[in-house]
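FORM 7B: Structural annotation worksheet

SECTION A. Query
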Amino acid sequence: MGHERHYSVEQANAALGWVGERLKRLRTAHAGLNDQDAREALTEASPANGGGEPGRIVSEAFLELRGALTELQAMSVVVRDLDRGLVDFPTLRDGREAYLCWEEGEDEIEWWHDPESGYAGRQPL
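SECTION B. Predicted structure
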């Protein structure tokens, strides 16, 4: 088995709000890391002062990104596509590991797939 934790459909559905909050944090942090003004200012900043305000913005974004990812990983939730909000919850199906698949905007988890087929192999529950 690839994951220590496995979710029932009910458990995964109950976690969707929590997961959605982390996706929002990840997107905000990702935007901070890619902020063009901060990156340009950092390039011009003195290495001796750590980049000043732009350095702080990028550092905080990195820490937030790492924190949200660590929380998701600790719960064995797999982020497949941040932009789409596509995540997988490990589950057991007929004694084999599979994934409950959810994409942001879906009301609840209604799909699953095996590890080899991925999103293209989604099947209704």
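SECTION C. Observations
Residues 9-33 form the longest helix (25 residues). Strands lie at 78-81, 86-93, 96-103, 111-113, 123-124.

SECTION D. Sign-off
Analyst initials: ____
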